[in-house]
Amino acid sequence: MEKNAEEILIKIIKFTVLFIVLSFSLSHVVKANYTSEEYQKSFYDIGYKEVHEALVESRAHFKHEIELPVQIPPIEFTHSFGRLNDLEGDVNDGFEIVYHHKDKPKNHYTIDVKPIKYGLELRKESIDQTFKLKDGSEALYSTDFAEGFNLLIFEKKGWQYILSINKAVSDKVKPEILVEIANSVGP
User: Fold this and answer.
1) Superkingdom, according to UniProt (predicted)?
2) Fold type of domain 2-183
């Protein structure tokens, strides 16, 4: 039963990432003069809101403090949005932040946070590197788990964090930078 839930969770994450990438890539191509207001509305229409508002909602939902990284990748972003994914049951619930650049679709970064007990488990063949974080915990880096994205997965204070960066900017956002970001979560 747990394996089936894990497979469903993996499919949902892959679908969500693919949906976001495709929807914003296509909308960017279709409408060259996409205003910032229209861009924001497209996110709000699919359930995103201001990051702090979504964080407060998520903390109340989980009844547990969520600490966020204080560092972001060294690429340009014009927008950030947050959302509580409160789906049927608890297995797929999580907090998500997306960072985008309105005119540079490849500048796409996400942070997904969910309770450890419902976190992803990478198969050994999906792990490219393992890093030791400054608190002694491990972070797993994968370049093939999510199509089009590189992931760094780690756990802190009861949460699993998944940092996802678009492969198109992997020359600027190397795994070591994602590790720095992971180390910036809480003291």
Assistant:
1) Bacteria
2) Phosphorylase Kinase; domain 1 (3.30.200)
Model pTM above 0.85: no
CB 31 within 8 A of CB 138: no
CA–CA gap between residue 58 and residue 49 (Å, rounded):
12
Q: Are 41 and 77 in contact (CB under 8 A)?
A: no
Backbone φ and ψ of 169, nearest 5°: -115, 20
Dist CA 91 CA 46 (whole Å):
21
The SS3 call for residue 180 is helix
β strands within 29-167, DSSP E: 79-85, 94-100, 108-115, 129-132, 138-146, 149-156, 159-166
Supply the DSSP symbol for 185: B
pLDDT tens track, the chain, 187 positions: 455 555 555 555 555 554 454 444 444 444 445 688 888 888 999 999 999 999 999 999 999 999 999 999 999 999 999 999 987 767 789 999 999 999 999 999 999 999 999 998 888 999 999 999 999 999 999 999 999 999 999 999 999 999 999 999 999 999 999 999 999 998 6
User: Which residue in 16, 3, 1 sits closest to 123, CA to CA?
Assistant: 3
Angle at 102 between CA 100 and CA 104, to 5 degrees: 80
